[in-house]
Write a structure and sequence with these properties.
This protein is 36% helix and 12% strand. 51% of the residues are buried.
Length: 753
Amino acid sequence: MQAQRKDRSNPALNVLRLVIAGTVAGVLAAAVALPAVGGAGVSAKSAMEGLNLKPEELDEPPLPERTILQDSKGKEIGRFYYENRQSVPLGQVAPIMRTALIAIEDFRFYQHGPIDVEGTARALLKNLSSGGVMQGGSSITQQYVKQVLVNKAETPEEQQAAIAPTISRKLAELRNAMAIERKYSKDQILEKYLNIAYFGAGAHGIQAASKRFFDKPASKLTLVEAATLAGAVQNPARTDPNVGAEARTRLLERRNIVLDRMAEIGKITVQEAAEAKAKKLGYKDVKFPGGCEASKYPYFCLYVQYEILNNDEFGKNPDERRKLLQRGGLTIKTTIDPGMQAAADKAIKKYVSKKDKPVASQAMVVPGTGEIKAMAASRTFGGSKKKNEMSYNIVADGAHGGGRGFQQGSTAKVYTLAAALEDGLKYGDGFPAPAGYTASGYSSFKNCKNENVGDPSHTVRNSSEGGGGFKTLESGTWGSVNTFFIKLQEKVGLCNVVKMAKKLGVKRADGAKLSEVETFTLGVNEVDPVTIANSYAVFASRGQYCRPLAITEIKDRNGKAKQYKPKCSQVLEEEVADAVNGILSGVFTKGTMQEVGGIGRDAAGKTGTTDNYMSAWFAGYTPNLASAVSLGDPRGTSAHKLIGITIGGQYYPYVYGATISGRVWKDSMISALKGVEPADFTSVDRSRFGGCTDNCAPKPPKEKKGDDNGNPFDVFDPRAGDDNGGWPFGGDRQDNGNGRGRGGNTGPITPGR
C-alpha cells in the first residue's frame, strides 16, 4: 500500500471538518466506551465541557526493545528484555499481514482521519443492541495512542489511567490521534502500530510475534499465519496459545473471523478463505527466554550484566541502567570465545560433577588486553537447590553478581616473590625455612598504616605441600614453603607485598579492604578466579596491568556503535615480570605441579592449597593466555573441608592445588590454545637476577665417600655458572624454565600434590 498524502486543502475547512467530526465522534467514542453513561451519573454536559478538539502532541518514548548479547564472533549468547520486541520497518512486514490487520481492525484506515465516524457509529449501534461492548470503535491511530500511553506508564495507577473507560480519556485520546495523523503518514502509523501491539505469548510487535508463533520473520508470513496474528491483537489475553487448549481454540476461531472478514471486503476470495480455515492453527511455540539463566554462558552473562548496571556511563542510577539493558535495544558484542569456553567447560566436567557440593570455577583472561575469554563452573547456574544449582556468579566478585569467594591460598605467594625481586633480591637469595615460624614480636609485621600486626602467639607451619631446609627464591617457590614465604614477607615488608598485590589488581571478592595481616602471603583473603587470573596476566604481559574487559562494542537501537578498548598501564618493570616468569615456569618441572606436568609450551604458574584444605587453587599463564581455577564448598569452607571427600566420582583423602585445579587448568589450557601460535617468555636478565646478594645459601659440607644420606641444602650453588656458560639460576639447563614438562631436578624439595 502507498502512504496516503497528507491533506493540504483549505486549513479553515479542515478545522471545521475536524470540529464537526470530532464533536460527534467524541460523544460516540464515549458512548462506545461507556454504553451506560447516564447510569454512571455522568451528564452529557460534563462530557461536552471536556471537549477541546485541538490536536495535542503525544510524547512517544522509544519502544522497549530487547538487548542482544553476542560472543566475540558475533553469535547471540543471551538476551535481556522487559518486552520481547524487535521493531522492523513496514517494508519488512508481509503485505498480507498488513491487509489482514487492516481488514479486521480498521478496514477504512486509509480513507478516514484520526477517527472513523462510520465505524464508531456502527460499533455504537452494535453495543446498544447487545447491551454490552461487543465491538470496538477505535481506529488504528487511536489504538496506537492508547498503546503508547500504556507503554510509558511507570506505575499500575498510570497503566490503569491509560485504559480507563472514561469520556475524558477518550477525548484526550482523540486529541492525540489528531496530532499523530498530522505528524505521520498512514504507512508510518501502521508501522508504529505493528511494532507496538501485543500479540500474546510474550510477543510484543509483529516481528517477535511472527518468530514466537511461527518461527519466521514477519516478511515471510502466509495468509493463514497473518490472519492468526491479526486475530490475536484484539484480546491477546484470551487468545494466548500458551495458556491452554481453550485459548488456542479461541485463537483459531478468531483467525477464521479474520479470514471471513477479508473475504467479505474482497481482499481474498471465498474459496481462499475456506481453504485457509480448513488448516490447523500451526502455532510452533518458539521459545525466546531472556536473562542470564537462559544464556549458554550464564556466568559470563552475569558479568556483562553487572558491567552495565555498575557503570554510570549507562545511566545515573541502577534503575536507569537496568531499563537501558532491558528496553534499550542494544547489541552488545563481548570478549567471550566459544572455543576457549568449551575447553574450560569440558575440563571442569572431567574432574568435577555438577552434583558435587564443592564447586570448581575457572576464568581465562588475555594478557595485555584483559579480555575475558571464558568463565566456567562445575555447577549449573539457577535457583534450584534440589538440582544443586548455583544462584550467584561464583566465578566473579560480588560487584559482578558473585559471592564471598574462596581464600586464595598459596597462589598469593607470587606477590611476595614479585615484591622481593622488585626490591633487589636475586634468584639465589634465601634463608633456612624451619618446620614452624613464630614472629619474634608484634612489630615483626606492619600493615600499610604502620600498625603492628605480627602475631607471636601463632606458629605458621609448613603443609605437606612444602618442606623445610634452606630455600632460595626458586626452591622456596617451587616447593611452596610456608615458613620461607613468611620470612620473605618479613624481609621485604608486609606493606610492600600488599602494595604489589593491589597494583596487580588483587581485591577481595566481597568488596571489603584486603586483610593486611601476618599471613597475607599465605592467601588468607577471599578472592575470585577472574581477579586472580587477571593478576597473573600481569606477569605474562611483562608488567602491564589491564582492567578485566568483557564488552568490546555496544550498538544502540539505531545502529550507532561505540567501541570499548583495553584500559592498561605499566605497573611492574618488564625485567621483574620476566624474573617472576622464570621462577614460576619451574613449578611444572621442579615443584608442586611436577606430577601433573606442563602443557608443551612456555607456561608458568602456582598451586594454592589453603590452611586445613579449605580450598584449592591453581593459577597460571602463557604469554597468550592466563587462567585461574578455584575449588571449594560454597556452603562454608571451614565446615566443609576438602578432606576425605569424593569429587567427580573419585575419592581424595586430601585435595591440594595440583590435585584437581591444576589438572583442570592443564587440560583446559592445552585445548584452549590449540591453533594459537606458541609464544616464548622473554629471557631473564641474568646480570640482574642471577646469583645472590647477602642471603646466599651456605656451601654444603663435603660428602664422605659412600655417604648417600643427603643434606638439608639445595643441591646446586646458585652463584655457580656465571663464568662458564652454564645455567646460573640452579637446576638443569635442559628445562629452560618453560614449564614444558622436560627434565630437571633440584633434590629434596617436597613435591606438591
